Amino acid sequence: MMTNHTLTYSKKKVFHYPITDRLQVTVHEESNPFGIDLNQLFNMAARINKNRSFLFVSKVLGKHIPVEPQRALDTGALLAALYQEHLLGIKHPSYSDWVQSVAQHLPTQATTGASQTVLPQSHLFIGFAETATALGHAVFENFQNAHYIHSTREVLESVRPTFEFQEEHSHATDQICYGKRELFENNDPIVLVDDEITTGKTALNIIEALQEAYPRTEYTVLSILDWRTKKHRQQFKELEQRLGIRVRVLSLVSGTIEVNGDPDLTPVKEEVPSIQPEADVRTLKVKPIFPYQSTEYTQSITTSGDVKERSYLSYSGRFGLSSDEQFLLEGAIKRLGTYLSMVRKGKSTLCLGTGEFMYIPMKAASHMGNDVCYQSTTRSPIHAITREGYAVQNAYQYPSPEDASISHYVYNIPYKQYDEIFVFLEHGSRGECYEPLIDELKKTGASVIYLVDFSS
Questions:
Q1: Do residues 248 and 370 share a domain?
Q2: Is residue 381 part of a domain?
Q3: 294 & 257 share domain
Q4: 64: domain range?
Q5: pLDDT-based confidence at 6, cuts 50/70/90?
Q6: What digits encode the pLDDT tens for the residues 284-328?
Q7: Closest Cα partner for 377 from 317, 415, 424?
Q8: Domain tally, the chain
Q9: What's the pLDDT score for residue 235?
Q10: 300 assigned to some structural domain
Q11: Which residues are listed as membrane-spanning (predicted)?
């Protein structure tokens, strides 16, 4: 159900983003139901990708730009409120608080079970790897009578995927979903959660794959940003007609974009102070506090085909999660965050998720006190430029600890910005090569680097 504030917002605005001297993106804003300033949602950067030259770098996602962890969680809550409004025709009582958190950086209390909405029919929420794994989970946590799962790029040994699909514009196109088939073998509505829709091709691909294996009648796509053209929107209508289904698309902001030029990707040598303090590296073994290691999923396959022993968490979202299991997870994360809040000593702290492992670190960071920022490592190669107003000011590159053939990155950590860094490792530090990542983090000037090891 559309509400008045959505229907009456019709003033079209135009924004120009000069990404580099030779690349500009123009945004035509068409819908902004919560009236959020676009500058609060994203900045822009040049992307090192032959399929797409630009990137909307989110300020609320907790990926490439550090964010207050609760603000990132409230972004998911605001998307959940948007879905509730359209599904049930009512506003969530915390709606205005979440708008203020996302749009104005005003703090809110952490989302609790008391504010959850009980869905009239069971739902399955799916977050897209790697960027939207936490966002999807942050949407799901606001509902009862629901399940959550996120896609992954990890290949598990001797485990048949529930389904697979392609993210064609990405640097890593293959997306896999695991989890029990009972989650999919029904006619329950599926809600797909992503941070941005540019053409909608990824959503169309996953709906096609799901409909072929587990047909149903209703899908919803939730996203922070939606830039589909009329042609792209028509493709959604054609899919609905061809498959006999209904597909809703809901977003915090929608419009269209124009891209002019190509980026100048001349490498920029980053200046690092010649004298770097030697960080104290400490390992924190948190299994006694967070006892949810999987016994079913224990091996993965690298891109070279090698089988590797690996620790996974049952409740990360990668293998499926129910509302009841989320309640148990919430308690464990709060205990973890409280413990880490007692460990931290610095005035300024960074909590760093790793790859797809985003939600649990983000949620734990929200329980660690003031002056805590959160972001994650990533596989996305982004061109860094030290220039005021550009989205990615610096970059740290290192080989993936799990697969040295894959490069990973950390962005936007100024020298001496943080006293201490907590690095959250789902797979643990045993048997993985984290030295390159640690060496890069030492360049940030942090005095202490904690490795939060979930495997032991």
A1: no
A2: yes
A3: no
A4: 4-261
A5: very low
A6: 999 999 999 998 888 888 777 888 888 899 999 999 999 999 999
A7: 424
A8: 2
A9: 97
A10: yes
A11: none
Q: Provide the whole-model pTM.
A: 0.93
Tell whether 379 and 255 lie within a shared domain: no
pLDDT in tens, 253-269: 999 999 998 876 766 55
121-145: per-residue pLDDT in tens? Answer: 999 999 999 999 999 999 999 999 9
Do 413 and 443 lie in one domain? The reply is: yes
